[in-house]
Amino acid sequence: MISESKPKNIVELLFLQRAGANKELLVKTNAKGKITEILGNYLLFSPEGLKPGIPITEAFPFLSPFFPVAHREVVNLPAVNLGKLYVSVQMFYEENRDVWILFSDVTREVNEVKDFIQQNNDLALKQKTVIKHPPLDNPFGNLHLFGVVTFLKTNNNNLVCLGETPSWLMEYFPQLALAKSETELFEIFPYLEVFLPAAGSFWETGKEEMFGSDMWIETPVDNNELFFRAFVTNKNGNHYLMVRLLDKGDISVNQQTVQKARDQQLLYEKLEKAEKELKKLLNYKDKFVSIVSHDLRSPMASVVSIAELLLTDKQLVSTMSEFNLDMLRSMKEELLRLLEYNNRLYHWANLELGNFKLDREKTTIRKLIDSVSQTAKPKIEAKNIRFLSLVPEDFEIEVDVSLFTQALNNLIGNAIKFTPETGQIEIKAKQENGKAQVVVSDTGVGMPPKVQQSVFSGVPNESTLGTSGEKGSGLGLDIVKKIMDAHGFNIAVQSEVGKGTMFIINLIN
Amino acid sequence: MIKKKICMLGSFAVGKTSLVQQFVNSIFSEKYHTTIGVKIDQKNVLIDGNEVTLMLWDIHGEDEFQKVKPAYIMGSAGYFIVMDGTRRNSIETGLELQKMVEKTIGRVPFIILINKADLQDSWEISNEDIQQLKSMGKEVMLTSAKTGDAVEDAFIKLTRLMLK
Ligand SMILES: Nc1nc2c(ncn2[C@@H]2O[C@H](COP(=O)(O)OP(=O)(O)O)[C@@H](O)[C@H]2O)c(=O)[nH]1
Ligand SMILES: [Mg+2]
What ipTM was assigned to the predicted interfaces of this complex? Predict the structure, then answer.
């Protein structure tokens, strides 16, 4: 979803940043037009004085059609004549229907183009046939200059068009000036059928405020959308109806905001869909890996047994050359490694799939670590590494024994891999003020900060060779992390290049 | 001549404006241009010897930016609830609007249009969903404002229901 920043801040900021702030005035009003804040040079625009509390329409009567606010939009009145001054007025509506009104002195700019516009208008008027109608005065003044047509509702429920009419009426809806009843009006603007019942109730209140409709769209010429709003009010006991053509440019600002938000929403929905698809694919991949690695297990294991069988057959061995014997041995080693790798792959895919149930049982850390050191013994001895384990005898935990053992195996395996000959590996378990930790540390090559960050990122790392060229699957630590997550434990790593690495498991329950 | 008001209702960007454009002007645009405010189009149709002027009220879509006001629906002789086959959540919005209409003006004929039938390969609305809507006793049609498929049929069918 998009977050809407408060227009207030934007407007205020924009205003304060403008160099010409002394030729500008910014006024905030509530929805009814009562002034609540004034910023800038008000004396220039309203010498009689503006002050909070009075209605803005008192100081600037030409703003009457815009209050009270009925719809959020930006209004732009480009050149309003206030005596000697020409002023451009922009109105920004806030969510809560407060309004910011920015007045800018554009006298100089207008004067520069005035003559040109005058000539242009004279020409345009000559070319147009103007429909004349009874020239009843409009008590609200020259509203037609702001694109407003005004009707008076007579006592016998007829409508009479007042004063001069705006240019859009002449151009697109000349019959509007002749409309004599609501029914005739509906023929031209069917939208008013939903507004006039509400307007009727408003007229009955006799209130001298403005009551506005929502926006509607007309397309008198192909594909040229015109936006309209209607207003009603009372004055001296009479009822009035006004229809205003909204400025196209101003509408589009509002339109763009909603459009952007909706485009974003559509995009977001698309992304969500793509993500779902991707998850399905990933899930499929994990299933695939799980099945294949499972099915490869037993044929591989039987080949390993056959190799073992051959190697223990004294008679056969005595007939083989030393070279062939070496080949057979390394074949067995490689196959064992492959089997181990395959096992990890299987575990990883299943953890990823969430396809496993924790089978927790009570045991002691000591028991688990004894079994793990038993497994690691051959490799530790081969690399002449000192192995220390500092574990209290009575330290009980409740874990899935086979998974947790696998995790410890991976951690110790990792430590052996990256600890050079004659180094040291230490496994410690401690219980202190309700906190329980298992720490595996080594005096190995350590990891640079970047590797430390990615170790538990959930993306398996490229395998790195160990200090004696040991190969690995790159999945080991990822599996550890998944096992810890499944238990609700957390695991952290501390490491320094050249000094060693320490994995800390916090056994929180 | 008989005049009848028909409302186009549904979530945003489901194709309400496009359906009206296809029916009234036989045009379609790929570009999404959100409708702000209300747009009313008219079209005369001849149905079983009756000439009827349809007033098609294209009301902006319902979402957190704009709400459909009950006043817009007053006086409707029938309405369409438009859903977008490629967006499952448009079902829910559509059904909510339908309830709102029934509360406001009572029972008048309506048809659920599941639009964008030309994109059926990437639809999120399934046959089961459609069957479920039908089993709730609702009239459902699949349309495409793009190809024009079933668009005219839908308007004619609704008008017939309204004239009954
Ligand atoms: N492919 C396809 N796109 C459509 C169809 N109907 C509408 N669209 C597109 O969907 C988007 C929204 O349509 P629109 O009529 O503005 O929706 P509304 O907000 O409900 O009025 C636009 O990009 C249209 O081009 C349709 O039947 N098929
Ligand atoms: Mg639309």
Answer: 0.83
